[in-house]
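Internal tracking record. Fields below are filled automatically when a chain is submitted to the structure queue. Please do not edit lines marked as system-generated. If the sequence contains nonstandard residues, flag them in the REMARKS field before resubmitting.
Queue: standard
Priority: normal
Entity type: single polypeptide chain
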Amino acid sequence: MASSDSLPLVFSAALTDPGRKRALNEDAVSQTLMPYGGIFVVADGMGGHRTGEVASQMAVSQIVEFLKREEPSPQGLLEAFELANEAIYLAGQKPESRGMGTTCTALWLDLPYALIAHVGDSRAYLLRDGELTQLTQDHSWVADRVRQGLLSEEEARNHRWRNVITNALGSFPQSKVDLVGLRVQPGDVFLLCSDGLSGVLEDKVLAEMVNTNPPEPAVAQLVKLANEWGGPDNISAVVVTVGSQLPQRTRPYALPLHTEGGPVRLQSGTDPEILTTQIAEPVKKPTFWGRWGSLILLGLWFALLGFVLLNQFGHKGTP
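SYSTEM-GENERATED OUTPUT FOLLOWS
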């Protein structure tokens, strides 16, 4: 689908499938194009007795309906997640709904900017110039161990606790949301997916599919390949391709960046001022002096010390 402008800003497609091992599909997806870009969401529910299905659908519908009424901003995206978290948490207090929760990853395209909010182990990727980058960090037991250096990526992919997540909408009274922002370039492609896709297909396969196909055949091929590789879980994918021309405009907010230390993580009740004081520029790579300057100074210091000691010992040894 494309926007109604003569030069479409965005093309997108979304697809969800139960996979081959699950009778029920507890994933939910949504795509909504807007004049400024669009709203795209993937959620992967958890909980027995169909509560996972209810949780994912609640998250998607509440977030999309709220954002459709709002002017794009980091504060608005965080508030949408907070409201969804509150609704799911309250619904999960019923005895029959214990354990109800859902992952959720949302892309709010406000061209030429992109805002991404994330909870759980569903993911957002960016394909730019043929290179696929994972924009989100998994909130899972194995991902935590990988970041700590205790597990390799391959060990995490096959670990028996790979499906244990550490953060979900509805699990706690207050949400903890990762917020990522970046400036979009013409031709950028975003992929949102549940772990039923990313946990089965390697990143190089994901990159090839979204790099060589428009959104609709891309999501179809991704789901097909995940099923061919066993389809052990529900599979969801949303592919969003940005057009060749972007609006030249600025926004009243600054971007919360995905820094070298990872995404900005915000908790419910965060002071909105924090969101507007982030620097809306990419993280600069260290300059040559910034990277090597301290080592050069340290080397010069040791050289000077050695020169002084050499002269002292030389004088002592002179008859």
